[in-house]
Amino acid sequence: MPWIKPVKQKEMKELDINNKKDGPLSIFDRMLANAPDLYEAFIPLQKAIVKTSISDDLREAIITFVSMKNGCEFCTTSHKEVLAGYTDQLDVLDWLENYSENDMSKEWKAALQYSERLIAKPVEVTRDDIKSLDVCGYSSRQIAELNQIVAYTSYTNQLSIGLGL
After folding, report:
1. pLDDT in tens, the chain (165 residues)
2. Residue 1 gets which letter from DSSP?
3. Is the pTM here over 0.90, yes or no?
4. Residue 35: CB partners within 8 Å, gap ≥ 6?
5. Of 27, 114, 126, 127, which is most buried by a Cβ count within 10 Å?
């Protein structure tokens, strides 16, 4: 149970927030809506992360991996279910945890290695980490998008953990 009261679904409709989402909102969104101005500013980034040129399955792998590494059970649980729908892996968390040892593509391994380095100790990320992505065929745009996905996920992990999700 979250540590603060989420905004009720019916009250979400009453909030004057641009870019409203359709349908019932997650408890995560309802928790953030306790600060309507910040939530309104958050929505465009949330939508933009989904619209990157990174494939849906790789994006979900990165989000799940980063959430797992950051210890965010709420995000790990919800995103591993989405990722499981994209893969034929029986245990997606074990598959991600052991990415360097499995038959995952070199492009995915490079993205996960970059993600791991960025969340473990950002100050130690070097130009060589970016070159590794470049060698695997990532464009400058895709590298910037990978960076945003990792940073966004770490941010949302902190929001979820900090609010008791």
Report:
1. 789 999 988 888 777 665 556 677 889 999 999 999 999 899 999 999 999 999 999 999 999 999 999 999 999 999 999 999 999 888 999 999 999 999 899 999 999 999 999 999 999 999 999 999 999 999 999 999 999 999 999 999 999 999 999
2. -
3. yes
4. none
5. 114
